[in-house]
């Protein structure tokens, strides 16, 4: 078994062992007003009122967190605040930060992360360097930082007990991708033809 696959399988086993897989489903059910679970025989016609306190509390808490606008501010530390060049430079950095927040749609990403956190107890931002991105007019550039929300069930780390993500020696983020695209990526990364042929569709679509 490849090291990456082993880490992935170990991560799935850890989630099941800790009860995350079952708990997350139950949490989402409560959020979406599915509070009664499976219908037991003989209770098909019983009334099942949905008061919806859990979704109401979640929506309120998420709204409170999201009510504060996101912002990144650069402030001079080793530069004199009355230096015109320093003020100009800081202003340019702040303008760039504002543009980047809008480009990454970070408010939308954050809303999704906060909602995940309120629902499952864990919200994950993923900031990454996109080497395929490009742009610019007078001066062209290649690559930029992007952001996305990661479902907590889709991230696997080498040490689940370590809270500081920067100290993890290995991190896997799982995605669903078209199999032909996966084979293409494997080929681009130098995989052997016989190994590429071993790439098969995932039978577990749950």
Could you walk me through the main structural features you see in this protein, from its secondary elements to its overall organization?
Helix content is 44%, strand content 14%. It is an alpha+beta fold and 206 residues long. Helix 3 (53-66) runs antiparallel to helix 5 (106-120). The relative contact order is 0.10. The protein has helices spanning 3-17, 20-31, 53-66, 84-103, 106-120, 179-188, 193-196; strands at residues 124-135, 141-150, 155-157, 171-173. The strands form two sheets. The protein has a two-stranded antiparallel sheet with strand order 1-2. A two-stranded antiparallel sheet has the order 3-4.
What's the structural blueprint in terms of helices and strands?
Layout (H helix, E strand, L loop, with lengths): L2 H15 L2 H12 L21 H14 L17 H20 L2 H15 L3 E12 L5 E10 L4 E3 L13 E3 L5 H10 L4 H4 L10
Antiparallel strand pairs: 1-2, 3-4
Helix pairs in contact: 3-5
Largest sheet: 2 strands, antiparallel
Elements, N to C (H/E) = HHHHHEEEEHH
Poorly predicted spans: none
What Rg is obtained from the alpha carbons, in whole angstroms? 23 Å
Alpha-carbon distance between the two ends: 23 Å
Report the total helices.
Answer: 7
**What is the subunit arrangement here?**
single chain
The number of distinct β-strands equals: 4
Give the spatial strand order of the biggest sheet. 1-2
Helix content percent band: 40-55%
What does the overall shape look like? extended
Overall SS class: alpha+beta
* Average pLDDT number: 86
Strand content: 5-15%
């Amino acid at each position: 078994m490849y090291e990456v696959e082993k880490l992935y399988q170990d991560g799935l086993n850890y989630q099941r062992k800790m009860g995350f897989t079952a708990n997350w489903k139950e949490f989402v059910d409560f959020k979406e007003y599915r509070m009664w679970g499976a219908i037991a025989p003989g209770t098909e016609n019983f009334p099942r009122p949905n008061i919806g306190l859990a979704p109401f509390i979640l929506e309120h808490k998420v709204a409170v967190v999201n009510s504060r606008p996101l912002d990144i501010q650069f402030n001079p530390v080793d530069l004199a605040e009355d230096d015109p060049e320093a003020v100009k430079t800081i202003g340019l950095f702040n303008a760039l930060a504002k543009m980047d927040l809008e480009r990454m749609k970070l408010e939308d990403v954050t809303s999704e992360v906060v909602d995940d956190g309120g629902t499952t107890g864990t919200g994950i931002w993923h900031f990454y360097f996109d080497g395929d991105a490009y742009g610019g007019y007078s001066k062209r550039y290649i690559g930029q930082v992007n952001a996305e929300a990661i479902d907590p069930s889709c991230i696997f780390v080498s040490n689940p007990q370590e809270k500081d993500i920067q100290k993890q020696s290995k991190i896997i983020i799982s995605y669903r991708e078209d199999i032909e695209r996966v084979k293409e990526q494997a080929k681009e990364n130098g995989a052997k033809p016989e190994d590429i042929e071993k790439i098969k569709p995932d039978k577990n679509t749950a």
